[in-house]
Amino acid sequence: MPLIEIKDLKKYFGAVKAVDGVSLSVASGETLGVVGESGSGKSTLARLILKLIEPTSGSIDYDGITDIRRQCQIVFQDPQTSLNPRIRIGEAIAEPMLIHKIENRVGELLEMVKLPAGYAKRYPHELSGGERQRVGIARALALNPQFLILDEPVSALDVTVQVEILKLLKQIKAELGLTYLFIAHDLTVIGYMCDRIAVMREGRIIELGSKKEIMSAPREAFTRQLIESSFII
């Protein structure tokens, strides 16, 4: 059984059909990519999975995930917007652990994302964009999640830093046995990271298949356009 099974999921905001009948599954241990243009419904889908918003209709089944708030976490596009500029990095990473009353392991998490332990005393503005994203990843890992949603985690970074962060995410996934849902608008980034790819447009999944199927022989003209507009890693 899949770790997460989504059936005919819909989320309407008035006349806007942000997610319109999405059905897909995420197997334990895989990286499923969701790719599409801005406004295609990708981030709304992520918020529905995390139960940050309620669906208009449809269902999401979680196999073996009993605590969505702890076992499902997210890494955002720009960590600067999710990091409090008034608190130090160590406090930001420790905050989820304090809330859920689990062991504080800030040093271990900083080491996992390849940052020196001394960074715990720094403030977000003292870090580069890539370093802040590493902090965002560390914070998402603080509660030992099973499932991680990566919502455009490298799109705000320059190409060299993108590659470093993507390699780090692959390494962490292998070490911790995580399951990823990777959201992006760039199909080449998705192809580098993912086992399967779902192409989303106007709230719907228009194409779903293995990385090889989607990247080598896309059925939809829209998917071909995404491939042509992507840069190569």
Structural write-up:
The longest helix is centred in the last third of the chain and has 18 residues. The protein has 10 helices and 9 strands. Helix 4 packs parallel to helix 6, helix 5 crosses helix 6 and helix 6 packs parallel to helix 7. The chain is 37% helix and 26% strand. It starts with a strand and ends with a helix. By secondary structure, it is an alpha/beta fold. It has one domain: 3-Layer(aba) Sandwich (Rossmann fold), CATH 3.40.50. The strands form 2 sheets. A 6-stranded mixed sheet has the order 5-6-7-3-8-9, sandwiched between helices. A 3-stranded antiparallel sheet has the order 2-1-4, covered by helices on one side. It is globular. One of its GO terms (molecular function) is ATP binding. Keywords: ATP-binding, Nucleotide-binding, Transport. InterPro entries: AAA+_ATPase (IPR003593), ABC_transp_ATP-bind (IPR050319), ABC_transporter-like_ATP-bd (IPR003439), ABC_transporter-like_CS (IPR017871), P-loop_NTPase (IPR027417).
Short description:
The protein is an alpha/beta fold and 233 residues long. Helices cover 37% and strands 26% of the residues.
- Provide the low-confidence segments as ranges: none
**CATH H level, superfamily name:** P-loop containing nucleotide triphosphate hydrolases
Major sheet summary line = 6 strands, mixed
Remind me, CATH topology?
Rossmann fold
